[in-house]
Amino acid sequence: MTERIGVYPGTFDPMTYGHQDIIQRACRSVDRLIVGVARNAGKNPLFTLEERVQMARADMASLNNPHGATIEVRPFDDLLINFAKSCGATLIFRGLRAVSDFEYEFQMAGMNARLSGEIETLFLMASERCQFISSRFVKEIGRLGGDISSFVSPLVRQRLEDRWASLPGGS
């Protein structure tokens, strides 16, 4: 039997419990899931690519994975479709929180299908408990002193607090 490989790409700046929810659910459909951490300099990430990969790997090591899929974390700085091909993937997983996410994701899925018809995009709706979580909001809430412990792992929370303390004007 051929191993089913999927890719779940993102900037993960930082990884949230919403991302982890999609990862756990994607593992139901594949034997191996590659969490692709994109360089994505256009988003001006708070953490370097290496830091985001390190945090994602730490979160994956402690993730409850009842479906037994192997989870790997890899950085990439390429077209998503080329990265997926290099991983041997036949599926790309994308999470949708709201209707506002759909238009962009739909266009990206169409472009990826045109670039490679062998790789399918599967959309997973965010779980009810995670629909409102976004990395952008987590960073803003935490930067302003709000409690982000219900949105990110303890490791990520600590890394965010350390980063803000090291910035000019940080506490």
Automatic annotation (TrEMBL):
One of its GO terms (biological process) is coenzyme A biosynthetic process. Gene3D superfamilies: HUPs. Keywords: ATP-binding, Coenzyme A biosynthesis, Cytoplasm, Magnesium, Nucleotide-binding, Nucleotidyltransferase, Transferase. The keyword Magnesium applies. Pfam families: CTP_transf_like. GO terms for molecular function: ATP binding; pantetheine-phosphate adenylyltransferase activity. It catalyses: (R)-4'-phosphopantetheine + ATP + H(+) = 3'-dephospho-CoA + diphosphate. Residues 7-140 form the Cytidyltransferase-like domain. This is Phosphopantetheine adenylyltransferase.
